[in-house]
Specification:
This protein is α+β, with helices and mostly antiparallel strands. The chain has three helices and twelve strands. Strand 10 and strand 11 form a beta hairpin. The N terminus is likely disordered.
Length: 223
């Protein structure tokens, strides 16, 4: 279950980081003030040579009861990325993707799909979701002395399992600090960043799965 949630929320989080979007014709209009916020977020992220962030993922049911929490780390550098969360690691060196399941001591290996329809973090940072959302700017919120701009996104495709995504942007740094996904079944997923470094030196070998560090791992090559 957490693997599916990680895929949904991480994809949405990265997508929203670059969501300087334009709505398709005849599908309603987005708030131009919200677009300014998202444009600023996208422009700021394009200045980062690397990103290393700590995040927490929390799942709530329709009654607001917490169903589970996990903590993790995400690193990005150019076309490379690595996501580490309790029980799972995903590596991508720009050509190959390794998905490691710790409990099973198993790694699935696949080739990165560079076709126009594939979803990769680097494409999401360059407006992959340009035509997938309508968005509006909600009132700012202030917590612990910081002000956050709140943008609400609704998917154009109404068959999606979620009906709303709410992101909070640090007004000073222009960085998204949280993403909350609202599913139609009542479940809510909160992805919140607790810290972020944008000048970290990340070795390139951090983005490749090293078999020597995982003794006895079963390799499932899907290439």
């Amino acid at each position: 279950m957490f693997n599916r949630i990680l895929s949904i929320v991480f994809t949405l989080m990265i997508a929203c980081l670059a969501a300087a979007a334009q709505a398709p014709k005849a599908m309603g209009k987005s708030d131009p003030e919200a677009k300014k916020v998202l444009d600023a977020v996208s422009a700021k992220f394009k200045t980062f040579k690397s990103v290393k962030a700590l995040f927490a993922l929390k799942i709530e049911n329709a009654a607001g009861k917490v169903q589970g929490t996990k903590a993790g780390t995400v690193m990005m550098k150019g076309v490379k990325y690595r996501v580490s969360i309790t029980g799972q690691e995903i590596f991508c060196d720009g050509a190959t993707i390794w998905t490691y399941d710790m409990a099973a001591n198993e790694v699935q290996v696949s080739a990165l799909d560079n076709s126009s329809g594939s979803i990769t973090p680097q494409k999401l940072f360059t407006n992959f979701y340009d035509k997938d959302f309508l968005f509006m700017l909600n009132p700012d919120v202030t917590r612990a002395g910081k002000t956050y701009q709140v943008v609400e996104l609704t998917p154009v495709d109404k068959t999606k399992p979620f009906f709303k995504v709410v992101i909070e942007v640090d007004k000073a740094s222009k960085v998204i600090m949280s993403t909350r996904v609202f599913e139609k079944n009542g479940n809510r997923y909160l992805y919140a960043i607790s810290s972020m470094a944008t000048t970290a030196v990340i070795p390139d070998d951090s983005f490749a799965f090293n078999l020597k560090k995982y003794p006895g791992v079963e390799v499932i090559d899907l290439r």
